[in-house]
Design a protein that fits this description.
The protein is an alpha+beta fold and about 425 residues long. The protein contains 13 helices and 10 strands. The mean pLDDT is about 80.
């Protein structure tokens, strides 16, 4: 028999018991559907994270305080550090530097209120974070120097608090302090790992420290959460990182044998970390979904064992007519593979439909910022189909071996 004949015979055999074959097929379909859906959602989540991080720029360096592993106390990075990095002539690969002082705040306008992140920044924040103004103007050095009580709102925050009013010149309250709105940002999106920029309020870093912050450890020192350093271009990131590290170590009087009292990461380091985490999550989800595929494979083995028992006389007749052991083996293995492959194709189609349906779900959340992203790729489909075929092969071998070992005389006597 050639492969085409074997395939036709396999379909005829499976067609004999339509209900039983369909129920077995369902197990494979559910297994493949689970694998496709969970891997697609995992890949979509990974792509969302990657796009969000890359949208912030590929030439950014993030400097944060470190924490002593023995005492648990955190070190300090200050506005003075940011100024030194910005002004130091040795920092030849740095284009711009901006501090970030982040705290949660309640913003009020009349009866409307919003609890969100309030960022203390300088005018460089606009260029470093690639922001554009929708209305008004951004913060200036004069605002920072004078501890001005002014604010720039993200577009979602402005709409939620002020509605259709002209936002420029409106007085809002942030943690009970009066602030005048001087600008509204264009929609930016993003915000993985925190609140979207569209929902934040930006105020002068000095105002954030002296007017809103309750932590005044050292008089005259503005403590920061992060210093963001923008390199001249993506090729200058590593050099800018080394220069910034050297300048901060000198400024903090760190000895040559001592460890840094700050952490410094570039955008690629953060991206690699998140990608490794999301890839691990995707693999974990696929492994869980694979359990249902194993259950489906056991169902295939069960139906093939039943089929061997029911077709014992058929096997005896074939062997008495000259069929070899390998012919019987190939026949039953092919039936198992055909059954699993059909289930795999149906599962792939349903998986694509599920992912497509999920992707059509409108953004969720009060700010409309959370979107269900999915990704269906050829690699995922090929992997799923290969796994389904391999499942049929693996779980079909034992029943096929059992059938091939039957002696013609015993098989013909079977009732």
């Amino acid at each position: 028999m050639n492969l085409l004949d074997i395939f036709k015979t396999s379909l005829n055999s499976l067609n004999t018991n339509k209900l039983r074959s369909s129920l077995t097929l369902l197990g494979i379909v559910i297994g493949i559907l689970s694998v496709i859906s969970l891997m697609g959602m995992g890949k979509g989540f990974e792509k969302s994270v990657t796009d969000t991080i890359e949208s912030l720029g590929t030439n950014l360096i993030f400097i944060t305080p470190s924490r002593d592993s023995k005492t648990g106390t955190a070190s300090i990075i200050s506005l003075k550090d940011a100024e030194i990095l910005s002004e130091n002539r040795q920092n030849t690969s740095v284009k711009s530097v901006t501090p970030e002082l982040v705290q949660m705040g309640k913003i009020n306008f009349g009866n409307n209120w919003k609890y969100t992140q309030v960022y203390g920044v300088t005018q460089n924040y606009k260029t470093v974070r690639s922001l554009e103004m929708k209305y008004g103007s951004f913060l200036s050095d004069i605002h920072v120097a004078n501890l001005a009580e002014v604010a720039v709102l993200g577009v979602n925050a402005a709409e939620e608090l002020l509605g259709n009013r002209n936002p420029i010149g409106q007085n809002i309250k942030i943690n009970g302090r009066n602030m005048k709105v001087i600008g509204v940002l264009e929609e930016k999106g993003g915000g993985f790992g925190g609140v979207s920029i569209d929902d934040r309020a930006l105020i002068p870093v000095t105002t954030a420290h002296y007017r809103l912050s309750e932590n005044h450890t050292n008089p005259g020192t503005v403590n920061l959460n992060t210093i963001v350093v923008e390199a001249i271009n993506s090729d200058s990131v590593n050099k800018a990182l080394l220069e910034s590290t050297s300048i901060l170590r000198f400024n903090h009087k760190i000895g040559s044998d001592d460890e840094d009292d700050f952490q410094i990461l570039n955008q690629q380091d953060i991206l690699d970390t998140f990608q490794s985490v999301t890839q691990g999550i995707t693999i974990f989800l696929a492994a869980i979904a694979g359990i249902s595929l194993v259950v489906g494979g056991i169902g295939v083995m069960n139906i093939m064992l039943v089929s061997v028992t029911e077709r014992t006389r058929e096997i005896g007749i074939r062997k008495s007519l000259g069929a070899k052991r390998r012919d019987i083996l190939l026949q039953f293995v092919s039936e198992s593979i055909v059954l699993s492959s059909i289930g795999g194709l149906v599962g792939i189609l349903l998986g694509w439909l599920v992912l497509y349906s999920i992707a059509q779900i409108p953004p969720q959340g009060d700010d409309g910022g959370f979107t269900f992203n999915t990704e269906f790729t050829f690699n995922i489909a090929f992997l799923a189909f290969s796994v389904s075929a391999a499942t049929g092969l693996f779980f079909g071998i034992f029943p096929a071996l059992r059938a091939s070992k039957l002696q013609p005389v015993d098989a013909l006597r079977y009732q």
